[in-house]
Every structure is written in C-alpha cells, then in structure tokens.
Amino acid sequence: MISSDEVPQPAAPTPSRREQNKAATRQAIADAALNLLRGKGPGNFTVEDIAEAAGISRRTFFNYFSSTEAALASVTNGFLDHALRQFRLRPAEEPILESARAALMQLADPMTVAPMAELFTLTQQNSSLVRSELEAWDHCTEQIIIAAKERVAKTPGAAIDELYLRALAGSVISCGKAAMDVWFAQCGADLSPASLSVLRQLLIDAIGHLGAGFASPAHSSTATPFKDRL
Amino acid sequence: MISSDEVPQPAAPTPSRREQNKAATRQAIADAALNLLRGKGPGNFTVEDIAEAAGISRRTFFNYFSSTEAALASVTNGFLDHALRQFRLRPAEEPILESARAALMQLADPMTVAPMAELFTLTQQNSSLVRSELEAWDHCTEQIIIAAKERVAKTPGAAIDELYLRALAGSVISCGKAAMDVWFAQCGADLSPASLSVLRQLLIDAIGHLGAGFASPAHSSTATPFKDRL
DNA sequence: TGCGCAGAGTGCAAAAATGCACATAGTGTA
DNA sequence: TACACTATGTGCATTTTTGCACTCTGCGCA
Known about the structure:
- The structure is a homodimer.
- By secondary structure, chain A is an all-alpha fold.
- The first copy, chain A, has two domains: 17-65, Arc Repressor Mutant, subunit A (Orthogonal Bundle), CATH 1.10.10; 69-214, Orthogonal Bundle (Tetracycline Repressor, domain 2).
- Chain A has helices at residues 17-40, 47-54, 58-64, 68-89, 96-105, 110-123, 127-154, 162-187, 193-211.
- Chain A starts with 16 loop residues before the first helix and ends in a 19-residue tail after the last helix.
- Mean pLDDT of chain A is 86; it is low at 220-230.
- Chains A and B meet through helix 1 of A and helix 1 of B.
- The first copy, chain A, binds a DNA duplex through residues 16-18, 21-22, 25, 46-48, 56-60, 62-63, 66-68.
C-alpha cells in the first residue's frame, strides 16, 4: 500500500468560546430533531418542539436552520463534512482517487455512521426529507470540487480542467452514495464490525470501478480483495 | 398536629426561555465551582477554570457572581431559598413559629441537603469560605424578615413590630443553623434515612426550644418525641 | 527593593439569543 | 365560501454573552 488511511492531525487550536457555543447549539438542534423524528415520525413535530427540546427559542432555531428539514440534513452534512475534512488532510501529491478512497474509508466508523444510518432509515419514506438529503450530497460535491481545485492550485504548472474536476467530484460522491445505499439495503442500521467491514469493501469496490473506468460490470461484489485495487 | 408539612403548590407558569437559561447558567456555574472545590480543594482553581467547566466565558461568570466565593455561596443560598419558598407557601393565619418549623423541615430532604452537606464538609477549614457561608445565612434572615412583614401586612389591624420580627427571624435562622451544625458534627455528609431523621428531630427540637423560650436547657437531644412539641 | 506575572474584577462594543409582532400558508369546519 | 386555528418564516428591538483591553493586587524572585 502506497499510503496509509491515517494522516497526522495538525492539532486544533481550541476554538473560541463563541465558536464552541455555536457548534454546541447546532449539535443540540440536530440531536433534538433526530430524537423527535425517532420518537414521533416525520411530520409529527414542529419547529417549536425542536427548539424546546434543544433548550433554545424558536427564533434561535431559525438563526441556525431555515427549516426542520435543513436541521435534519445537517446530520448528513456533518457526516459528509467528516469525509471532506479527511480529504483535505491527504497529501497534495497523492492521486485524487486514492485520496477519495481514503477519505470515504473514514466514514466506515461506528461513531460517524451511527446518526447517518438512523437518519437514513427514518427518512427513506418521506420524499421531502429524501430531497433535502440529496441536497446535502450535492453540497458535498461542490465542496469537493473546491477542495480539489485548491489541491491542483498547489501543484505548479498544473492547469485546472473544470469539466474534469466536476465530473470527478460528482462521480466520487456518487460512488460514496451508491456504497451507502447498497450498504443500507443490505445491512440496515447494523453497526457491527462485520457490517462496517461490508461498508468498507463496498466503498473500495465503488471507487475501484471508478478507477478502472467501469471496465468489467460483471460480478465485483464484496469479495474483491483489497490488494487488487489501486 | 394542627397543620401538615405539605402545602399544595400554586403551579409554576413555565418561566420564559430567558429565565430558564439564566437559571441553568447559574446552576452550571455553581455545579462547576462545587466540582472544582471537590476535585482540587479550596484556593486551587481560578475563576477561569470555573467558567471553562461551566461552558461560559470568564466575563459571563462575573455577570452572575462577583467572586468564586459568591458562586459557592449560591449553593447555600439555593438551599436556604428552598426553605424560604416553603415559608411563603404557608397559610398567613398560621403561627409564625409553626410555619418556620414546617419550612425548615423541608430541608431534611436528600436532594436538598446533598449539595449543602458536601459544601459544608469542604469549606469548614477555609475561613474565607466560611465567612461567605455566614453571609448567605444572614441574607436569608433578611429575606425571612421581608416575608414575615408581608405576612403581617396581610393580617388586618396588625401592626408591624420591627424589633419583634427581626429578633424572631434571626432566632429562627439561628435555630436552623444550629441544627445543621450539630447534624454535620454528628453525622457528617451522611444522607441515609436515619441521618435525615436525626436532622429532622434536631430542627424540631431547636424550634421547640425557641417556642418554649428556652425554658429547660437540660437534656433535650434527639430522643424527644415529636408529639411533645408545639 | 524592583520586576515580572498570574489572577481578580470592570468598562465597552460586537455578536448571539430572545420576545414579539406580523405576513403567509395549509387545514378543518360551520 | 368564510372563518378560526395552527404552524412557518422574518424584521426588529431588547437582553445576554463574549472578547478585549485595561487596572489593581499579591507573590515569587533576582
């Protein structure tokens, strides 16, 4: 293996109290919304309920999110941001596909996927919620494009091919989403090591297909050994 | 027994979000201070530590309390406020001494005395902290005087005798404090039912002495049966 | 003695949270 | 249809929290 999936963290300079509070509030709202979704089902609770459960006023809720759906989408956003952060941490000289693979691999972690898995099972039936989930994936695509551009800009003499980048980013996200979809369908919200290993393999396979130009659409499945990829 | 120790609560009209937040912050500060006192001992932590543990800024701490000691004293204040609230709930026509007895009796409750008991054991050695505790008791005395005046004002034709009220309030508080002191000395921070029953009896006895004009300073102790009092 | 420093406490302006009023939209109902 | 009612979303004034820059005091140390 050329590079590890782990990259040394550049140390976080303890955000200001303001930043911490905002992050905590944001998180409290997302948690409250997810709890209510779990307890009452989609459409059976109001913004006021969320605010109350989060310990803030209704007005403050709207200072953070434009709607209930936006609040729930923040769970997905948080999930995807995690991957994005990992992507940014990869060395600039690494092939982008390999960086993407490593970043996506970080998602197969219990703490990370848990809220996402639950949200997925709870929103699958509700078209409105599913739509806002898609928006989150799309937003992440845009972020990846930006991150990729930054990386290319670091490499002297390399020109930015807009189409190439956008197609690549979109494809990578699609592969990630496809892996998640298949995983949910196969394993549900199961977070056992075995299930997570399946997710990992799905992610690897999906990126593998992408890297191979989708050469052999035949079997693939989760049996493909890791060493055969990139 | 003429009247019960329990009085129907007039129902709390859910305070505003602002009120709730302020109360929560106040409580968080007091808890953080008590935790640090427990963990590091008096004098071994700063206002900044408290603020950090409470999840607020140092400046905000000073918006609530003027010093570390004031924050710790709020534990005592909360304890005494509880008794004061009970006092205010008693019917106006009840003899004041009986109201006081009933109010003090409410203090012999595990949830109520727990923080107080711990604070007591932790501050006993520190003169500065003990002083601010005394201030809290004194503050409570003033509050009782106010509450008693309000009660007298409710009774038509009754004149307010300043000296009588002040002497009475001070004496009642002294009796309460004496009972607590003896209890701590006897039982430490023990919160078992047996220990709380001792506290109850001490409170009853102390008020009993007061009601009897301190007639017989002889034995008393915790053996005195309840029915012999008031 | 003088100096550096950590911590207490305060004034002030910027930022965040809140209450409140209002416009709007959907829903059940007489 | 008209009306009451509930919930969303927003504008604005007020209150609270925060960051920052002080001042002041006590303490260790050269």
